[in-house]
Amino acid sequence: MKEQFFPYIQNLQDQITQKFESLDHLGQFKEENWERPEGGGGRTRVLEKGAVFEKGGVNISAVHGELPKSMQDYFKVGESTFYACGLSLVIHPKNPMVPTVHANFRYFEMYNKQGELQDQWFGGGLDLTPYYLIQEDVQHFHQCCKNSCDAFDASFYPSFKKQCDDYFWNTHRNEARGVGGLFFDYLKPTETISLQDRYDFVTKVGDNFLNAYVPILQRRKNYRYTPQQRTWQEIRRGRYVEFNLIHDKGTLFGLKTNGRIESILMSLPSHVQWKYDFQPENGSEEAALIAVLEQPQEWV
Amino acid sequence: MKEQFFPYIQNLQDQITQKFESLDHLGQFKEENWERPEGGGGRTRVLEKGAVFEKGGVNISAVHGELPKSMQDYFKVGESTFYACGLSLVIHPKNPMVPTVHANFRYFEMYNKQGELQDQWFGGGLDLTPYYLIQEDVQHFHQCCKNSCDAFDASFYPSFKKQCDDYFWNTHRNEARGVGGLFFDYLKPTETISLQDRYDFVTKVGDNFLNAYVPILQRRKNYRYTPQQRTWQEIRRGRYVEFNLIHDKGTLFGLKTNGRIESILMSLPSHVQWKYDFQPENGSEEAALIAVLEQPQEWV
Predict the structure, then answer these.
(1) Which residue among B102, B142, B172, B247 is the active-site one?
(2) Which CATH number applies to A2-294?
(3) A25, A64, A102, A172: which is the annotated catalytic residue?
(4) Contact: B274, A268; criterion CB under 8 Å
(5) pLDDT at res. A74
(6) pTM higher than 0.90 for the full model?
(7) Is A70 in CB contact (< 8 Å) with chain B?
(8) Interchain contact, A272 vs B274, CB within 8 Å
(9) Predicted pLDDT at B257
(10) Which of B45, B274, B275, B279 is the best substitution to test chain A (most A C-beta atoms within 10 A)?
(11) Which residue in chain A is spatially nearest to B92 when comparing CA positions?
(12) Which of A171, A265, A274 lies closest to B269 in CB terms?
């Protein structure tokens, strides 16, 4: 399976970065190939100061070796070796009318001390973080998520949509990071679903990523905005930073297992503000966003 | 002891906020009194957009009640009640030539289920986070720290200085948050040191806070700086955010024990930047700062 999935994410990284570069006449991805001392490595592509994209990273990695102690505890296994590969992206557009988007597609294999395969699964998803709520855009994004799911199983979308709302929850703020999308993990083969079926599903979601996001970007990237709207975007980006540094399991594992810091923290936006006790005005568009973040909605 | 220490920090908050207001003709502290549903409360004072101070908070609180489960585990005790009071401040000046400063002075009491006092201790310290390294300033700050300590015990400064370097260590970056100062915790009475001695020491350090910081502020607050130096300051502030959200025990306990979010996160700077893989030029002043953060120094 790793010989099938890793080439897939290599190719997906190419497709996504080419598409984004074609949409931004100023920005170009800077590529960095890195190696992990303990085994494996990755290809990081980061774009900064584009016309459309203020900062974005589309990274792939394939790492293997001894499972670090902290991850042994997390997975409740003894000494093991592992293989993990995945694509991870975060895009912070400049225009506050364009949402931030995040996606991740990953595959994991775990081996015992004798090198025998013990477990294998897929994980991933995609989610949207708007600064201003434009119903049509959120509905489009969720409809694409649902379409990818419904081709496989009618229970997938409601289940993975809820897992997404649950996962991207800023507990200390009592609000969602954004308007969600899909989140799935530990997608293992079952009696009726083969590992190949899991691959087909995850790659279907991956193939649909650009369809889910690019139309929104194209519709909104030239919208006019005020300095006040820009400030609101930077304040909300602060909540994004809070989630990623306090709650996000992927970020914290990366930091605790000696991952490549700059590849992990490329997810943080370029310009961020924290104002003390900032509250949007009652009835404002900003307050309308908060209301939806406090109470996740059904979009399709 | 709480009847002695809480009035002390109330008074110290007044002294510090009055002094800072007198140094900033634009900025004024906004005061907020808050109550903790489970018992106690606090008085938060935050100043934003001053001429000298870009953002700063000087907060006191006195809270009590059942010890939350997560803190029972942390302190390795069973069901208990507690009392805790303290002053906590973080000042982010506008001018990159003026360091950020943090200080905290706190007192803790722990009771068993029968309401009998089981344990009591002081904790706290102060530390400096410069954006440009001006030896004279760092030496002055550490000399003040040492003076407060030496009046009590010659072993205090070396011990609490080292604890400060160890505590404010950004493990994922392999560098210190700043140039340190003092950090102490669990200062309990011993056979030769009474609780009153502990009080005398902690309040001595508190009384010396303004002496340690204000002369630096006055010397540097009108220094000229370039937009590039401002950008560097905002990038370094990103490391401050990373430390507080990933590693700082006080912040994380606050967030996990239902503290008042806006009082806890007032420590975050107003404007922050993250650039991908930013490296200062060899031989630059920025590189000189990093060298010292990677390898904590003896200053006095």
Answers:
(1) B102
(2) 3.40.1500.10
(3) A102
(4) yes
(5) 84
(6) yes
(7) no
(8) yes
(9) 67
(10) B274
(11) A274
(12) A274
The residue of chain B with its CA nearest to that of A238 is B272
pLDDT exceeds 80 at position B258: no
Q: Give dist(CA A53, CA A90) in Å, integer.
A: 11
Query: Could you give the angle at which helices A135-150 and A156-167 cross, rounded to 10 degrees?
Result: 130
Q: Which is more confidently placed, A68 or B134?
A: B134
Distance CA B104, CA B156 (A): 17
Q: Report pLDDT for B109.
A: 96
Rg over CA atoms, chain A: 19
User: Average pLDDT in the B219-231 region?
Assistant: 97
Please return the burial class of B18, using the count of CB atoms within 10 Å of its CB with bins 0-12, 13-18 and 19+. exposed
Q: Which of A129, A125, A130, A195 is nearest to A156 (CA)?
A: A125
Instruction: Locate the domains of chain A by residue range.
Output: 2-294
Cβ distance of B238 and A268 shorter than 8 Å: yes
Amino acid letter, residue B264 = I
- Sign of the torsion angle spanned by Cα atoms B249, B251, B254, B258: negative
Contact A275/B at CB under 8 A: yes
Query: How many Å apart are CA B94 and CA B76, to the nearest integer?
Result: 42
Q: From residue B282, give the alpha-carbon distance in Å to each of A218, B61, B137, B286.
A: 41, 45, 23, 9
Residues of A in contact with B46 (CB under 8 A): 276-277
Q: Is A238 on the interface with B (CB under 8 A)?
A: yes
User: Mind listing the pLDDT tens digit for each residue in A33-92?
Assistant: 999 888 999 999 999 999 999 999 999 999 999 988 888 888 889 999 999 999 999 999
Please give the angle made by the CA atoms of A116, A119 and A120, to the nearest 5 degrees.
115
Q: Is B25 a catalytic residue?
A: no
Contacts of B1 (CB under 8 A, 6+ apart): B107, B109, B120, B195, B199
